[in-house]
Amino acid sequence: MALTYQMVLKISTAKLLMKNAYKALSLRWHPDRNPKDQEKANRIIRLLNDIKEMI
Predict the structure, then answer these.
(1) Which site in 20, 27, 30, 38 is 20 to 30 Å from 3, CA atoms measured?
(2) Per-residue pLDDT reduced to its tens digit, 15-49
(3) In this structure, is residue 16 part of a structural domain?
C-alpha cells in the first residue's frame, strides 16, 4: 500500500501533537518544579521518558 499525502500529513500531525504533549507534561512534572512531591514527579518523568523512547 502506497502512502498518500493525507496519510503522511496525518502521521506528521500526530507526531507533532505527541511531541508537544511530551514537552508540556515534562515541564509540568519536572522535579525542580515540584519540590513538595518530588517522588511522584520523578515517577511521572521516568514514565514520560519511556513513552518518548517508544515514539
Answers:
(1) 20
(2) 899 999 999 999 999 999 999 999 999 999 999 99
(3) no
